[in-house]
Amino acid sequence: MDFEILKQQIEDAAKKAFLEVYEKHGAEGVYSFALYSDEGAMTVCPAANTIKVLETADEEDALYYKYEPAEWTYEMEGADEEFNEICTQLRAELDQHEDDDQWFEGFQAKLYSACIEVLEKLKNENFFTKITGKDIFLIFTVSDYEFEMEELKNLVVRLNNNEYRSEYLNWMATWGN
């Protein structure tokens, strides 16, 4: 699989997904966007959330609902065809290498890196800010998987140089307490 082509497909799909969500829900105050995959490296999906949705979140767990893409309202919304095509390609590639664990580990790492690089590129191009007029919280995550704390911290720092970064890092500091 050509990961440069895949990365471009993910970027195009991410842009389209964000634009579609913003067009439908921009008035609700879109503040976040994520790409996420799964441990099997079979999917890439978008997620977004809005300030309006947060108003109904449980106060005690407000930061969890604010920063956890699995809890966001607009999960798997936008650029449906494009993301479905990406997932079909990923599954076809995985089917060709079914019993090769070493190959899989490299494939998974390249896929995760591609997603992170796309988000970083869009951030550096001010893609989200040009549309919303404000900073957006960005994250890459993997369903049913926990990143090592240091890895997650580095990811948040890499993708966010805004008020969300410090709030997220302060929230992280409370984990396990």
Helix content: 55-70%
Largest sheet: 4 strands, mixed
Number of domains: 1
Count of DSSP helices?
8
State which percent range the strand residues make up. 5-15%
Integer-rounded radius of gyration:
16 Å
Mean pLDDT over the full residue set: 95
User: Low-confidence segments, ≥5 residues, pLDDT <50?
Assistant: none
| Spatial arrangement of strands, main beta sheet | 3-2-1-4
C-alpha geometry: globular
Distance between the termini: 43 Å
Protein name: DUF4303 domain-containing protein
InterPro entries: DUF4303
Summary of the model, kept short:
By secondary structure, the protein is α+β, with helices and mostly antiparallel strands. It has helices at 3-25, 51-54, 62-67, 80-96, 101-124, 127-132, 149-159, 163-172, and strands at 30-38, 45-50, 74-75, 137-143.
How would you describe this structure to a colleague?
This is DUF4303 domain-containing protein. Pfam families: DUF4303. The protein is α+β, with helices and mostly antiparallel strands and 177 residues long. It has one domain (3-172). It contains eight helices and four strands; from the N terminus they run H-E-E-H-H-E-H-H-H-E-H-H. The chain has a four-stranded mixed β-sheet. A hairpin with a 6-residue loop joins strand 1 (30-38) and strand 2 (45-50).
